[in-house]
Amino acid sequence: MSTNVAIDHDVPSRDSSPGGPVLVAVIGPPGAGKSTIVRGLARANGAPVFRLRETIRARPGLLAGLAPSPDPLGWVSLEAVRRVLIAAFLGSAYAADPVVLLDNFPGTAGQLNLLAEIAGQAGRRLALLELTATAATAVARVAERRVCPACGPDPHAPAEPATDDPELCSSCRAALIRRTSDVPRLHGLRMARYLANRPEIAESAADHAIEHRTVSADDDLTAVRSSVNAVLSHLLTTATQPRGRQP
Ligand SMILES: [Zn+2]
Fold it and tell me: Of 27, 60, 68, 130, which cross-links 214 as Cys (Cβ 3.0–4.6 Å)?
């Protein structure tokens, strides 16, 4: 287990954000286990999860008039991201939520700059929680990961395999499949993009005085969860509103 804050096992609760509402952006390489970790944190804190693509799917009108994304990984333009962030955080969607978790967002420094600007306008604090993982961890997690094509609307939810047949879904017994984005070519592209963007994201966080903590995801899931809980608990106390970038 490796983390840069002291570990305590207090599970943070809804009222543990005395400094005002806070957005916690969770980033990390593909295969670090972000979605699983974020779902656990969301349950433990009664916090909603913001996902860029899910919001776009739910509210396609937000992108009216914009050209469709030509990107092979489906990334959308900064203008599209701006519209989604304004609708999400300056609108009523999360107005009553003291903590919102952002799953796998921002993906670029440009996206973080927009998020910082809009969090500032919304009077929300902002923190960055980064999972780190070695290439070996990421490749192993991705190779193991299966989803159920029949259960639930969330294509990122890892499926629970049946005890008598690990190839089948435990709840509906449909054959489990790899996530489309986990085929090796796409995973490689996502990893390369993450590694290319990560240094500038960290730089942008520093420019905005956004608290940025890292947690190693190389341990087993229980240990990673415990570390992440401790770091989140810390961030809920110490996060501040982003400041404008220094010239
Ligand atoms: Zn199923």
Answer: 130
